[in-house]
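Let us practice reading a record.
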Amino acid sequence: MKLSHILVLVALFGAGCEAVPPTPVVAPAPVAKPAPSKPKVSEESTRIAAYYASVQTRLLAQGKLRQDFNPPDAPFNTDTLVRNFEKVALYDEYTNQEGVFVEEQTASYLRRWQKPVRVGLYFGASVTPDQRVKDRKFVSAFANRLAGLTGLNIRLTSIKNANFVMLFLNRDEQKIDPGLLAANVPQLLPSIVREIETSPRNIFCVAYALSNADNPTDYSGAVILVKGEHSDVMRRSCIEEEMTQALGLANDDPTVRPSIFNDDEEFALLTRHDEILLKMLYDPRLRVGMTPERARPLLHSVAEDALKQSHI
């Protein structure tokens, strides 16, 4: 989507007993605990939250942000998968021009992860404890789903040990937190920090995939920004789309359907069609570095097998 517990400790004290008449015990008056202070949110971030809420309401009213996994009104076959795979996996939506990411559709190479993926989550102060629990639970479950589809070793870890960094930041935090984190999070390159700091509100969320200088088709890291002002469906949609795109399905195309890799927001969550594309990407018959021309002769058999395996 260009435009990823409260522990209560109860202490029980037992008192010794003596053979004397019981003395009435007067419970001390409860001491009122101050309510936890909420982080101060700027007017800009408040406006953005209201804007995202209105966008979600409007899209749902239009019948978009659908959550059906295998929609009957959007059939597809092997030929569809071959065509859509090439558009999503073998083309780029953005290019890096002198440190600035510019939207431009260009033919690319097949890229994917070939090492364990370690997902680290960072929450800005504006994200409430309850929301952090929900986000972490959702990301963990989706990471397990992605691992099953790709065969990759994917699990959550601390932010300092992560190579797949997910930032949940509101507008205020976008301007401060990435720069502070950069010293300890090597994936936060200066160009990515600048992009996050200046990301406009019409960018709902974004993923930046990183590769080794000596092997640019082998992913070595990723940074995902989920705008902290999102709630509910849009928030989950951002997590699913950006995590999947950061594994190698990097492009969005208006003709790809039924799919989340389409900026018209018809579908909010990963579809069966998208799962098959991900299986195709990690099929061992395809190799990192393949151009569209080299991959094309193999795609039909790869798509056919992935489609057979996905019958529901």
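A brief commentary: Confidence is low (pLDDT under 50) at residues 1-32.
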